[in-house]
Structures are given as structure tokens and as C-alpha cells.
Design goal:
With 305 residues, the protein is an alpha/beta fold. It has helices spanning 21-34, 40-52, 56-65, 71-85, 90-94, 118-128, 146-154, 167-180, 221-224, 241-253, 269-279, and strands at residues 96-99, 102-105, 136-140, 159-164, 184-188, 202-207, 254-263, 282-289, 295-302. Strand 3, helix 7 and strand 4 (159-164) form a beta-alpha-beta unit.
Amino acid sequence: MTPAKPLRKDGDDRQNPYQNWGDVVRAAAGVLAAAGVRSPRVDAELLLAHVLDRDLSELRRALVLGEPVGEGERAAYDRLVEQRAARVPLQHLTGVAHFRRLSLRVGPGVFVPRPETEVLVDLALADLRAAGEAPVVVDLCTGSGAIALAVADEWPEARVHAVELSEDAHAWAAANVARSGLRVDLRLGDATTAFEDLLGQVDVVVSNPPYIPPGSVPVDPEVRDHDPEVALYGLGEDGLQVPLAVAARAAELLVPGGVLLMEHADVQGEELVRRLTATGNWTEVTDHADLTGLPRVTRAVRGGR
């Protein structure tokens, strides 16, 4: 990749024609667009909001008013724009990923939660309404803790448990649990053997397991080069080896009539439904689209009610 053209040259005001942050952000958005960033203007604004410690609405008012540029802040901003142009994830640069009502700490070593996963939480909340008082929820492969914490935040009566295999990701999840103050029993361990103490007691299992087929390398550098491989690749020819092993553990954890909700790649919906149905553990196996209309979450009811 050709290095991004710098926005300024230190120590030479003749090379720095930008007198206000509005001009700087427009130039930064151009640099990010040229680097292939999908949302260059929004990313340029979010990076500046991070540098100036402002919320986005406050920042946008300042841009309209032509707030003058501070030299030290400008240097910090230029460094972040250069890194974003090199396709370092925005969330790694700001240290924050927004998921539903939560602001989660993220960085190297943990999968950055995506907006498409939010539909899984919507489905979980719908099932929790029918699960009675103090339902038990387990998040297998919790990563940053996003799904578990969202459920704990939006359904406070739930008893939420979560497990993560990666020590790095578990550390991020632990920080998010502590920072949120929400009640989540977070454990370090293998999702396919976890929660021996909860066998047959769980009402809803949620999971966003690794599911990318080994030969399908993600196109986006942010994912390919920065998300941990253990959170991406599901093993087996179709990437479903890990998801199916996680689903088998979910079948052992759930009460009869309990619900599994599992995210998958948009090309795996039909096959995952077929494979889960074939095990004989599940009834009412259906697939659900995300907010973009792509197949995203499989819902299955534990048989034996």
C-alpha cells in the first residue's frame, strides 16, 4: 500500500493551510477515502472527537463554527489518521467499541463487536420474556463480553454467565465487566466443556463463535490483520466445526425447551439449520436476518420438553 500523504509538515506553516478543524477533518476524510476506509468522514470525526475528548454532536457543532486548530492536538490527530489510513481498526485507535447501549473497551487480542450481532441480542430478549423470573443465560465464546453485557444491561433479572478461551480476550472482557458494574459471571475456559455446574439449568444460550472457513481469508484488513484468528476461523471445510461443537455443549446446558441463538456467516444459514436439525437435539430450527437483510443468526429450541 502506498503510504498516506501527510496532512501537514511539522514546523512549516506554509505547508499547513488549514486554520480550523473543519478544514482538517475534510482533508483527513479525503486521506481515509483514498486508503479505502468505508466511512471516511465519520471515522475522521470520531478520531478527532477522541483527541479532543468531545462527544460527536459537540464536535460537529465546533466544526460548523470553525473552531481553530491547536498545534499539539493537531499532531496527535495526524498520527491517528495515518494509522487509520494504514487500516488499523478505528476501535483500536479510540479504545472503544459501541454495542447497543454499551461502550466497551477493546484493542489488540480481542474481536471487535459488530453491529450485525445486535440482532442476536434482540432475539435473546424476546426469548427471555417467555423464560420466567430470573432466567439463566450463558454466552459461549464471549470475546469482549459484548453479548453477555448487553443482555445483563437490558434484562437485569437474568443471571448471566460467559466464557472465553483466549486469555487476551478474557482480560478485555473482565475489564468491561468491571467497568460496567453489571452482573456477569465471567470465566476463562473452553466453550465446548464449560459450565459443568450449569448442565440442564440454562434457559438461553447465546454464541458468536468463530465460523469463517479456513480458506476464506477476510477481505478487510481491519479484520484479516487485527482480529485474532482464534475468534475468526471455525475449522473444518465449511467453518462449522467449532460452531457445531459449541452447539453440542449448548444442548447439554439447556433445559428442555431452552433456546440456542448462534451467529454465523451469511452463507452458512441453510447448512447450519440442516446440521443442527440432523443431530436430533433441536426442534424449531430457524434462521434470522440481520439489519442488512443477510442471514445471520440461527435459533434452535432444545428438544425433550
